[in-house]
# Entry
Amino acid sequence: MANLRRNSEIVLATASSGITAKLLLGGRTTHSRFGIPIDIEPLSICKITKNYDLAKLIRITNVIAWDEAPMINRYCMEALDPSLSQLWTTIKILHLRQNMRSIHDHEFPQFLMRIGDGNESAKEDDMVKMSAKIVIPWEGESSIKKLIQHTFPQLENHGWDASYMVERGILTPKNCDVHMLNGMIINKFPGDEHILLSFDEVEGDTHNLYQHEYLHTIAPGHNVGKRSFLPRIKLKTTDGAGLPFVLIKKQFPVKLNFAITINKSQGQIIPNVGIYLPRYVFSHGQLYVALSRGVSRAATRVLIKDGKVDGKEGDFTKNIVFKEILLSQPQVFIY
# Structure
C-alpha cells in the first residue's frame, strides 16, 4: 500500500474487524467504509449513493485493500460486489495476506491461501500436514524450550531491547498455555526474583468471606495496546466484570506477555512467530490466523503435541474452515 500511495495512487485500506483496521494506515472497517449493513442478509445492499462523496471517492480509487476478507460473512462481499460494479469498470480488490510480503518465499504464501480457504489437502477430521521446514518435532518439554529459543534467541542479552521484544511472540489456542509459556520465558531472565504482594479485597466484605488466594486469581483488566495511566489508587471492578461482588485491587497492574492466544493476535504482524499447539485449534480460521502472523516461512515455527496420523509421515494438525461462510467464487486479485 505504501508503494502505491507513493506513486500517487489512491488506496482504501479496510479490514473485516476494528482491531485489524486500527493497524492499517488510514484503515477503516469495511462496514464503515462501504455502508455494509451490520445485520447482513442474502439480499442486502450497501448504502452507496451514486452522486455522493463516497461514490466519487470510489470512482477515483485505484485499489481497495480488504484485510482478512475470508473471515467475514460471505454476504458482505456479495452486497459490495454489485455496488462496485456500478462505480468501476474494472474492479481491483487487493486481498491482503501479510505473508505475501515475502517475495523470496513463494510456496509458503500459497500454502497459507489454501489453509485460509480450506483447500489444503486434508485427511479425515480436517487434519492437514505442516511443512517439515516450519515444524519442531515433539519430544516433550524440551521441544517447548526449542520453540522458545527459536522465537527468542539469546533472550538473556536483550532484556531491555524494545525493538527485539516487539518483533517476537508465541501463539497458542488457550490462556492456560499462555500462562505456562510466559512463566517459562520469564524464568530465563537473569537476576534474583522478587515477589511483590498485591492487596485485594471485596467491597463491604467485613467478615472476610472471600479468601485472598481466590481474589488474587481474578484478572479483570484489559488494556493491551493502549497507553494508560497507572494510578496509585484502589481499582474497582464494574458490573461488566461478571462478578457477584465489587473487587477492589491495589497493585501495579502490569503483566509481562511473551505469549498470547491466537484470537488475541488477529490483525497483528509478528516478524518472528512461534506457534504452540498442545491441542488442536477449535474455531473457524484460527490456524490461518496463527500461521499468517509472521512474514516468512523461515521466521515461523510450529510445535504440535499430538501431530501424528497413523500410517502417515510428518506432523498434522486440524484446520477448521466453514466453507459455507466464504464466497464461493470471489472476484479477488492477489498482489
